[in-house]
Design goal:
It holds the Pfam family ABC_tran. It is found in: Cell membrane. This is ABC transporter, transmembrane region. The chain is an alpha/beta fold. It has three domains: 344 residues, ABC transporter type 1, transmembrane domain (ABC transporter transmembrane region fold, Up-down Bundle); 149 residues, Rossmann fold (3-Layer(aba) Sandwich), CATH 3.40.50; 79 residues, P-loop containing nucleotide triphosphate hydrolases (Rossmann fold, 3-Layer(aba) Sandwich), CATH 3.40.50.300. Helix content is 60%, strand content 9%. It has 20 helices and ten strands. It has a six-stranded mixed β-sheet with strand order 6-7-8-3-9-10, with helices on both faces. The protein has a four-stranded antiparallel β-sheet with strand order 2-1-4-5, with helices on one face. It starts with 12 loop residues before the first helix and ends in a 12-residue tail after the last helix. The structure holds adenosine-5'-triphosphate. Adenosine-5'-triphosphate binds next to helix 12.
């Protein structure tokens, strides 16, 4: 990441969001080498394993080129017999010399195989460990991020980072890293042999090398942005697929299948097009490299041949040079592909590490717990908050909810009721004022203790794939059967669960699709109740159930509400008439408060809405909506 773009070592949320319109940090100009340095910093704990794997790759490559040298030495034995190079090592007869070479070849091949086995095991295990750690760390970090982060980010893009990008890095470590190291070793080792045998031929054979390396880097610069584009398009594709599959019922009900298939096709085609552009550049490079290498090969072949004929070059050395040019040629042909893999992996690394470095704004700095027993007094003291993206929010809210009492929040849709709940749970921190529980500011309570004390039944019910039992026990995984049933009874869910053939073990399906809306809502209520929280928050918790069930739930809630604080949001006023206090929110402010009777007497917005809901007036007469 270029330091000019961002402030300090960490990425601020705003920067991240601002840059994520197209794809996360597509515009980041960080060079791949910097990304590699960042990865190595992250992988500090793996340094020894990386060094061991690198050493095995190097040794394997040295063993790999040794047989070509031995062939040259063998030719030398055959041609020069008693005057050969090996003869100088005290092996006088040519037969003896060939035998020595054969034994040496045997050990070299065994060594090559052994180190191939070792480097493969080491790199592959490293790839597995690192990808698993990166994915787990990223997931754990993403879980800590603020709600505003998730509102600005599509889950498809996050999944693409945690799956595709992590896999991309795994692929590089699996094979690419070894290939890159071995290309380097081949060039250096072969170069050294060339210079020892004939500096003139070495110079000629190596003339195209700078051109090839320049070409590879030129390609890297060209291909980098193209691969970023490919990554962006795959993110778009994942996002559209995810959205469409979750919204399949809506698509069907609007008979929009053809339109959606068309939209998916369009995104899919842009992905193909992005890949095509990248492929065009990558495919052109390999033939160009091969031509350049051919020049080096022909130089060795021709000039070396001439020199051998004139006797100025040993025949065995000529053989070594010709064979070794092959060893130089093929790895360099693969250089483009390896750099290609490296470039992709580093683009992925950047995205993963950028995500890992997004700072958490709602900091869990305190390790203080709420003093027990929690009385459940809730205070909003001059609380103001605005959402960055919409500017909507709440303004100067002052509310006191005594422990054990029931507070109802009412108001038109979008007036700010759920926002108050989010501030209580510290999904966001207020810009002004503070929220306190039992006199302790929520900022000074650990998030664990705070959220453990609150049972939330939110407007949108989310059930996890699994059984009814697992879903109810989500709030208390160690809950026994009796507590699960008790919570289900209080939430008026037991009758329907009991009637199911598999009872508590009935699978709910993905997001609870196999249950009705009202059943899902009751399970979510039971899930909150099983925590036995001192503060229970019900955001439209009974909006999807029939009137009779709703009345039964109300009775249960009144019963269990005696020893806990209940904050409820409801549009149907009949469900909150018994509340100790009713607060009317309008455009982010408190405009009326009191008991049901007091508010009727005040004859304000609440009274007008009450008349509409009880059939005494028309909807236009009120603003509560
Ligand atoms: N994540 C968000 N980002 C930006 N604006 C938001 C966000 N969530 C809510 N808002 C806006 O803040 C205002 C208050 O929303 P809030 O959800 O608190 O209303 P509400 O009173 O609970 O409404 P409803 O009764 O429909 O649930 C609305 O204008 C809404 O558009």
């Amino acid at each position: 990441m270029s330091s000019g773009n961002f402030h300090g070592p960490y990425l601020r949320l705003q920067d991240f969001v601002a840059y994520s319109d197209r794809y996360i940090l597509l515009t980041s100009t960080t060079h791949s080498v910097q990304a590699l340095a960042r990865l190595l910093r992250y992988a500090k704990g793996y340094r020894r394993r990386i060094l061991a794997a690198t050493a095995c790759s190097i040794i394997n490559k040295l063993f790999d080129i040794a047989p070509e040298i031995l062939i040259g030495v063998a030719i030398d034995v055959v041609v020069n017999k008693e005057d050969s190079f090996v003869a100088r090592l005290n092996f006088t007869t040519p037969e003896e010399q060939i035998l020595v070479l054969a034994i040496l070849t045997f050990f070299i091949w065994v060594g090559e195989s052994l180190f191939e086995y070792l480097y493969k095991i080491l790199w592959r295990n490293l790839a597995q460990r690192l990808q698993a750690d990166l994915r787990q760390d990223t997931y754990e970090h993403v879980q800590q991020l603020d709600m505003s982060f998730f509102e600005s980010k599509s889950s498809g893009h996050l999944v693409a980072i945690m799956n595709d990008d992590v896999n991309q890095l795994e692929r590089f470590l699996d094979g690419g890293a070894n290939a890159l190291i071995q290309v380097g070793v081949a060039v250096i080792a072969v170069g050294a042999v060339f210079f020892i045998l004939s500096p003139l031929i070495a110079l000629l054979a190596f003339t195209p090398v700078p051109l090839i390396i320049w070409g590879a880097f030129f390609f890297q610069r060209k291909a980098g942005p193209l691969y970023n584009d490919v990554r962006e398009k795959v993110g778009d594709l994942a996002s559209r697929l995810g959205n469409n599959l979750s919204g399949i019922a809506t698509i069907k009900s609007f008979t929009a299948e053809a339109r959606e298939a068309e939209r998916l096709k369009a995104v899919s085609e842009t992905y193909v097009e992005a890949n095509r552009r990248a492929i065009r550049v990558s495919s052109a490079f390999i033939p160009v490299i091969r031509m350049a290498i051919l020049v080096g090969f022909l130089a060795t072949f021709t000039i070396g041949g001439m020199m051998a004929l004139q006797g100025s070059l040993n025949v065995g050395a000529y053989g070594v040079l010709v064979f070794l040019t092959q060893r130089l040629l093929w790895p360099l042909t693969g250089l483009a592909e390896v750099i290609d893999l490296f470039e992709r992996a580093m683009a992925s690394t950047r995205r993963i590490l950028d995500l890992l470095e997004v700072t958490v704004e709602v900091q869990d700095v305190s390790n203080r717990s709420l003093a027990t027993p929690v009385r459940g007094e809730v205070h909003f003291q001059g609380v103001s908050f605005r959402y960055a993206s919409s500017g909507a929010g709440v303004e100067n809210i002052n509310l006191s909810v005594p422990g054990g009492s029931t507070l109802a929040l009412v108001g038109a849709t979008g007036s700010g009721k759920s926002t108050l709940i989010k501030l209580l749970l510290r999904f966001y921190d207020p810009h002004e004022g503070q929220v306190c529980i039992d006199g302790q500011p929520v900022r000074e309570i650990s998030l664990y203790s705070l959220r453990q004390a609150i049972g939330l039944v939110s407007q949108e019910v989310y059930l996890f794939e699994g059984s009814i039992r697992n879903n109810i026990a989500y709030g208390r995984p160690d809950a026994d059967e009796e507590s699960i049933i008790k919570a289900a009874i209080t939430a008026e869910a037991w009758n329907f669960i009991h009637a199911l053939p598999q009872g508590l073990d009935t699978p709910v399906g993905e997001r609870g699709v196999r249950l009705s809306g009202g059943q899902r809502q009751r399970l979510s209520l039971a899930r909150a109740l099983i925590k036995n929280p001192p503060i229970l928050v019900l955001d439209e918790a009974t909006s999807a159930v029939d009137n009779e069930t709703e009345a039964a739930i109300q009775r249960s809630l009144q019963r269990i509400g005696h020893d806990r604080t209940v904050i409820m949001i409801a549009h149907r006023l009949s469900t909150i008439v018994y509340a100790d206090r009713i607060v009317v929110i309008h455009q982010g402010r408190v405009i009326e408060h009191g008991t049901h009777a007091e508010l009727l007497e005040a004859n304000g917005r609440y009274a007008a809405q009450w008349r509409v809901q009880t059939g005494l007036a028309k909807a236009e007469d009120t603003l509560l909506g």
